[in-house]
Design goal:
The protein is of the alpha/beta class. It has one domain. The chain contains 9 helices and 6 strands. The strands form 3 sheets. It has a two-stranded parallel ribbon with strand order 1-2. Strands 3-6 form a two-stranded parallel sheet. Helix 7 packs across helix 8. The longest helix is centred in the middle third of the chain and has 18 residues. It starts with 9 loop residues before the first strand and ends in a 24-residue tail after the last helix. The relative contact order is 0.15.
């Protein structure tokens, strides 16, 4: 979307974890990401290829992509009392995608901005659930922070306006010369179908083990009734259409 519908700023918010076993094998990539986010980068539960794609897209467009990062996923889980996010409490997107972007907006703007969101024509109902406010500290009440809802953005949905659907996006990606990951977003995202998660055990076993380990030591499951260690034991459904991603209503975790 950033290529065909340019914005004044291109922003990417990265989900990080503190597990060295999940670090990219390419040490030069680690250094590049550390330079981009302005602090030490250890690992992510997104596909490592996503990191390279964002770097490649910056060169492809000839425009800067601003990298943002919030708390690590490990710290977010601890902050929430060792509870795991799930479809009913999707705080992972809020804490690690939305909040870093909101904080960046809060430092640079004093009025709502028009924000491009990549909802496609074939998922246009998601635009109806798009939120324009964010809960943040708005002042002090005595010695405590006063919280309120801040109006910070207006949605702009160019893919919907131009009737762009998933096959069109895939066709452009395949012709771009940029190698995109076969499955987007965090590899263990609970929004993904079970068969996609099973496939990701094949493609990203170390990262998927991080998700399984969180279930072993935290409270609750990522998916109700489906522990990730059990998903690992399932057979792969040969006629399943892999790589469709996983959408979150907030607008930051979708193809």
């Amino acid at each position: 979307m950033a290529v065909h519908y340019p914005a004044d700023y291109n922003v990417f918010s990265l989900v990080t974890i503190d597990d060295l076993s999940c670090s990219p094998a390419d040490k030069s990539l680690i250094q590049k990401i550390s330079d981009k986010i302005g602090r030490e980068f250890i690992a992510t539960v997104e596909d490592d290829l996503t990191l390279q794609v964002v770097l490649d897209l910056e060169q492809f467009m000839g425009r800067e992509i601003i990298w943002l990062v919030g708390q690590s996923f490990d710290d977010v889980i601890k902050m929430k009392g060792n509870y795991l996010p799930n479809k009913l409490t999707r705080f992972c997107t809020t804490e690690m995608k939305l909040k870093p972007i909101f904080n960046w907006w809060n430092k640079n703007f004093d009025e709502p901005i028009r924000m491009g969101i990549g909802y496609r024509w074939d998922e246009k109902e998601r635009a109806d659930r798009f939120t324009t406010e964010f809960k943040a500290v708005v002042g002090k009440r005595g010695s405590k922070n006063a919280w309120g809802m801040v109006e910070w953005r207006k949605g702009w949905f160019p893919l919907i306006e131009n009737k762009i659907i998933h096959p069109t996006v895939i066709k452009w990606a395949n012709q771009s010369g940029i190698k995109f990951p076969s499955d987007s977003n965090c590899v263990g995202c609970f929004h993904k179908p079970i068969q996609q998660l099973r496939k990701n055990w094949e493609d990203h076993p170390i990262k998927m083990q991080w998700f399984a380990d969180q279930e072993a030591k935290s409270k609750g499951n990522w998916k109700q009734g489906d522990r990730y260690e059990n998903i690992k034991k399932l057979g792969i459904q040969s006629d399943f259409i892999f790589g469709t991603g996983s959408g979150c209503d907030a607008g930051y975790c979708t193809d």
